[in-house]
């Protein structure tokens, strides 16, 4: 397999455009073709039993999406194929999602899909077939350094930036990644207007904001069907029983709604999920200030370039649409230790912490444990 990036400025590349059937990926493919590249469109069939039509803006990878992608490719004037990656997607994304919830963690399947499907399975197949790059409709920017290496940066429009879900990409993958929408200071309405000017029928198609393989948006119902029901206790911080649940997997740290406790707190204030124990099958709830996290330990770090060698100041993003927070972070063996300048809330094991140096994505890691009091020692990951 040729691993040498062939991405010199002005060079005509062979580009494989991943076309989901939505407006962003269609416009991205059109821009790549307009820039003079030799573009081929591909729709990834990720479901073994795709539905004929989506429900509103939920889900993706339906028969309808495949047809929309094909029609867009015809308008752009590029070849189009459908590749079946359903089994790989089931193993690497869906089963991982279920296993993480069963273990009391809160995963982000979009990061796993980018890591394992779009920029692993798809990219490897593309390179084997002689393509130079994979193009997607993500809002992020790849910058080439003077030495020829690649860096991942935030999109020009911070409101649409999606670099968080791409923080799992390493430098080799970035060398073959193309994000034509990332350096565009345009609103989503302007992207839709561009699609209309190009004659793309997906111009007014609703965006999908949900987990793509849970078309009805009912994550708890999906997990219940996969994991079954298992009644357990909802406890307060002192271990007092406040109520019951039908499955600890139906909760996430920081959750306020849907607790169904029935008994009000002594101070009358809302309570939040503080901890989930799949071993004891319990959910612990408490006041908002008990959610304050001062530090965390993360595992499986992935670096978008050369790994850091010591402690340094960065900003960190803890969820897809979260704010930047100042941190000090240091790789320690196979872990990443992160300390917050000010305590943050709603940090759940299983989520990703993505580090930034300005607009540059340094890398990401999966949160394994949190420290809620400054006097605590760093948690031990097992």
UniProtKB/TrEMBL annotation:
It catalyses: S-sulfanyl-L-cysteinyl-[protein] + uridine(34) in tRNA + AH2 + ATP = 2-thiouridine(34) in tRNA + L-cysteinyl-[protein] + A + AMP + diphosphate + H(+). Residues 221-286 form the tRNA-specific 2-thiouridylase MnmA-like central domain. One of its GO terms (cellular component) is cytoplasm. Residues 160-162 are annotated as: Interaction with tRNA. Its main location: cytoplasm. It holds the Pfam family tRNA_Me_trans_C. SUPFAM superfamilies: Adenine nucleotide alpha hydrolases-like. InterPro entries: MnmA-like, MnmA-like_C, MnmA-like_central, MnmA-like_central_sf, Rossmann-like_a/b/a_fold. ATP binds at residues 18-25, 44, 137. One of its GO terms (biological process) is methylation. Signal peptide: none annotated. It is found in: Cytoplasm. Its EC number is 2.8.1.13. Keywords: ATP-binding, Cytoplasm, Disulfide bond, Methyltransferase, Nucleotide-binding, RNA-binding, Transferase, tRNA processing, tRNA-binding. The record marks 138, 351 as: Interaction with tRNA. Belongs to the MnmA/TRMU family. Catalyzes the 2-thiolation of uridine at the wobble position (U34) of tRNA, leading to the formation of s(2)U34. This is tRNA-specific 2-thiouridylase MnmA. The lineage of its organism: Bacteria, Bacillati, Actinomycetota, Actinomycetes, Kitasatosporales. The gene is mnmA.
